[in-house]
Every structure is written in C-alpha cells, then in structure tokens.
Amino acid sequence: xxxxxxxxxxIDPASGTHEVRDLWIQDGRIAAPAERADKTIDAAGQVxxxxxxxxHMHEDPVDAEGRLESYDESSVFACMLHxxxxxxxxxxxxxxxxxxxDYLDLVDRDGAPVNVAMLAGHGFFRHEAGCRDRYxxxxxxxxxxxxxxxxxxxxxxxxxxxxxxxxxxxxxxxxLTEAAAGVRGTGKLVAAHVRDDAAQIxxxxxxxLDAGLQLEVPLQVSHIGSMAGFGQMAEFLALIDEYRKNSPxxxxxxxxxxxxxxxxGSATYDEGWLERYHCDYSVLELCLPEYEGQRCTEELFRRIxxxxxxxxxxxxxxxxxxxxxxxRHEAVMVASDATLDHGRGHPRAxxxxxRVLSRxxxxxxxxxxxxxxxxxxxPAAQLGLGNKGRLSEGADADVVIxxxxxxxxxxxxxxxxTPPAGIGRVLIGGKPVLRDGxxxxxxxxxxxxx
Length: 450
Ligand SMILES: [Zn+2]
What we know:
The longest helix has 16 residues, at about 140-155. The chain is an alpha/beta fold. The model has no long low-confidence stretch (mean pLDDT about 95). The chain is built from 14 helices and 24 strands. The chain has two domains: about 50-270 and about 315-390, Alpha-Beta Barrel (TIM Barrel), CATH 3.20.20; about 270-315, no CATH class. Helices cover about 30% and strands about 20% of the residues. It has helices at about 75-80, 100-110, 120-130, 140-155, 175-180, 200-215, 225-230, 235-245, 275, 300-305, 320-325, 350-360, 370-375, 375-385, and strands at about 1-5, 10, 15-20, 25, 30, 40, 45-50, 50-55, 85-90, 115-120, 160-165, 190-195, 220, 250-255, 260-265, 285, 310-315, 330-335, 340, 345, 400, 425-430, 430-435, 440. The protein binds zinc ion. Zinc ion binds near residues 93 and 164.
C-alpha cells in the first residue's frame, strides 16, 4: 500500500525540512517517491508534519473485564488523537492505573486510539510493595521489592520510570535511586513530579536532579508551569541551565495553561497550600457535576476532601506570563499532563497541542518549526525513539496534517472534551485514523516498547 500526500508544506524539524513537497508512505513507513500511489491525499495549504508525541500524560483506566476504557469520545486517548498526538507516554507522576507492562500487552491485544508508551510508576509499585502510608518511609524489604518490580517492567518494555515525590512525601532520595536502579545502562528516561513547588521548587528540583544524575540516564522535570509558574520561572530555568552544562539530557515539559489539575485528596492540598500559592479557596474548581461552574469554599473543600478524596480539581493559580517564559527555553517540551475522570477534568487533555500552535506560534513566542520540534523530535530523542517524531525514510508513518491558520484549541474548563479546530488528518503507521475531527479508527495504536 503506497500513499502520496501532495502539495502540503512538509515540516520535519529533525532534518530541518520546511518546504512544499510530496510525502510518500509505503507499508506503514515514510518512503522514497514511487512510480505510482494507491492512494493520494491532497494537503494544499496545510502543514504535514510528524504526529505529535505527548511525553507526559495519564492513561485511561482498565475496566473490570480487563479492557482499556479507551474506545469512546470521553477517553483520554481519544482526546490525544483529536489533538494530533500519535504517541502518548503514560504512567507519569509515579502513577499507573494498572500494571504498566500488562497495560502495554492490552494495547497490543486490543489496539488503542494512539500509540502508547508506558513509564513504570514508582508510586504504583510502592503501594504494591505494601507501603500504605504515603507519609512513611519504605522499609529495606519494600524498597527491594519495588526495585525488582520496576526492573521487570523495564525489561517488559516500559520506556522509563516516573516519580511523584509530591504524592509520596515519605520517600527520600535513596528510595528514588534504589527504586529506579533498573534503568542504569539502559538509557531509559526517569521523570519526576518533584517534591515541592512555588518558593520550594529550587530545593525540590535539586533533590531530584542530584539523585537522578547518579543513574546516568535522561531526566525529565514534569509540568514545570505548575511547579515554578508562580513567580519562580526565570530562576528555575537558570537552575536547569546550570545542570544542563554538565548533563545536556535534562529536559522539562510544560502544558500551556495557567491552572493545574489534581485529585482533591492528594498531598498538594495538605495544610499550607493556601499560603504556598498566596490564594484562597475560590481558586479551586471541583470536577463534580453538582458543582460545575462554581468556585470552592472552605466548607466545601473540607467536606469533599474528607468524603470524596478522589474528586478531580482544577486550581487556577499559575501566572500565564510564567508559562510563556517556560516555552521560550530550549529544553522545554510541549506535553499535556492530560488526565480525565469519566470525561471530566482539565481542558489540557483535548487542547494542549493546538493551543500551543495557535496561541504561541501566532503571537510569535515560538516559530512554527520550533513549536513542532518541541512536540516531535525533542521528545522522541529524550525517549530514544529513533523511528518516531521525524519524517525521514524508514520512520514510522505517524503523520498529522493541519491548517496553520485555523488550528486552535476549543476545549474549555466547562467543556473540556470539545475537540480542537484545524486538524485535517492524522495517520498512524500510514493508516488514516482521523479526518476533519472525526475518528475513523480507534485501534490503530500499538504499544511502544523501550
Ligand atoms: Zn504530576
């Protein structure tokens, strides 16, 4: 099967290509021009570029029958596809919804809306090892068990290890290096939602980077907008530069919003959070149908946190100009941190990539090529994926075709699942999976093993 995408502006930051030319696909891979095509796609006026790679998101759950909950419009992987993402890296912040290596097997068995790579989440294995108190230190036996399970998950194809130090206050740097010991010598990624944010981001980032560097693998500081976007961003980026002088494979990711989202019961909302963010309860939205469109109060916060700690929240506390500053830094990738609870949650799940391509490119914060670079080859390199995030011959034919004038996010805090505008087509492994906002195939995605 040979496909020719013609008349589009091909942008491939990996090779520096930015020109109107044809792109050929044969048997699922980018190919040299052929004599004839079985299928022709006209992309006049559109950009043709590698499918986006979301290096930081959170997967759909698995149902009681052991199937992915990924096949309807409210699934987070469907949202990924609507945004032009073709490979999603799940299992971030130390959290897995299911055993991460088994999850990859499910993706291979049933397919998924996008390709799925998995990080082995330390928090998941910490819990499995019997640590039920997140504020308590793990025992030596529990640390050994975590290390063994994480090592096995890496051997079964997990692409790296993630930590949520914020969510497991009882862990220390030794637990981090011991738990992730299996990555040594593999070149696989270690990502972390670090222990603290705002004024405490500097010591928190140093803790992770100092411990992580001992593992001699790529390191990723997660969603820095919600870690340093309260007035600390310039100084935080200077700290990243300081580390990158000796360790150039330290990178960060960021989503383009001035509000974050997490569970109400998480340690983020432990005593002291109002002082940390210099705010009151009204910055908070509870993602429950009965409180839709309302801001929180102290009474509501205390009651729902006690009775329904799994409730998702959106917290409107970051500064937009700090998020903008993050995107100007060479080591910052675009990532969504998408997480949805039965279709409810933050619009970043369905808006991130188009939002960067509209807001940041049209306002001149980023060039189009640079924005695409931060969505494709940069995460691919950090993940060691030589066949993704590029359009060179032989690369996987994961492609997005979009209108650079029309592309924009339309998901909002009240309607977080509204798909973006301007994404014409998405192909995964050469297969058409989305056309003009309509998903054509929800099972073309495969497990991506590292
Ligand atoms: Zn996180």
